[in-house]
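The instructor's notes for this session suggest beginning with a concrete chain rather than abstract definitions. Hand out the sequence below and ask the class to guess, before any prediction is shown, which regions might be ordered.
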Amino acid sequence: FLVPGENIATMKYGAQVVKGELKSALLDGDTQNYDLDHGFSRHPIDDDCRSGIEIKLGQPSIINHIRILLWDRDSRSYSYYIEVSMDELDWIRVIDHSKYLCRSWQNLYFPARVCRYIRIVGTHNTVNKVFHIVAFECMFTNKTFTLEKGLIVPTENVATIADCASVIEGVSRSRNALLNGDTKNYDWDSGYTCHQLGSGAIVVQLAQPYLIGSIRLLLWDCDDRSYSYYIEVSTNQQQWTMVADRTKISCKSWQTITFDKQPASFIRIVGTHNTANEVFHCVHFECPAQNSTHKDESSKEVATTEVGTGGQQLVSRPVRAASTSSLHSPPGSTSRSHAHQP
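After discussion, reveal the predicted structure:
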């Protein structure tokens, strides 16, 4: 039974939730209306993993792609695995994210299998001992994908708002400015994300673990300053692997970093030096690195001409923050809600 690209976990195709609490929410197609009280299916997280949420398809079907929406109305993360079966006796694990922190939409791919039953077992929730899932879809897709060690090796940038990536540490005028794809509109006041040197970092959380081998970023470059930094990746926010050490190098503008592929759902950028002041400023982040286009490189000139001398007057000398918790404000302002100014 094969309808390429069409979700078959629907009532139309005879699918039903046969295990789990609040079964009716999972396959109703509503991915907008959910909150703390309703709009999700759930199961208690227990050590022996006997609980779970199980879907029975209308008939045995070939699938290689599953999408699930983990409850994401706050910043929590979940861990889980997914198994498939024809008879509810022999189960084959097709996705194992039990050791990874994941949030929001999960786009999952695996070698095609015939199955009738799909079981999702939550193994961890960073907030409590219940696993909550808002939506479930499964299908066969003709889309090409690359898997290594059970993880997707992406070619497109997955550090985007559309892919449910988010900035979980770092200061910015607008949340997720780092990931909005805008590499042209930034100046002394906005369009960047930053952190105080010697304290904190800029941390991006991807929605799910990927096998990543490159990163590209744009350091704030409206004047002649240079920065130094290093980058680490993690799947659980506990163990970190350094993938770039540019602490001894003077770096400006666009940075492309390549390294041996690593499982990553968290990327931490730590600024260690800035020739102009005590703050590290980053305008854009992507992974994996997309082929640089010339229009990207020209954004530097655009930004510089826009700022002109006006920018120089605006920021004669950014005042150093009195403590690591206070933020740089525009000169003459006492407000602490602004991002660190370049």
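Then share the key points. Confidence is low (pLDDT under 50) at residues 294-338. The longest strand covers residues 105-125.
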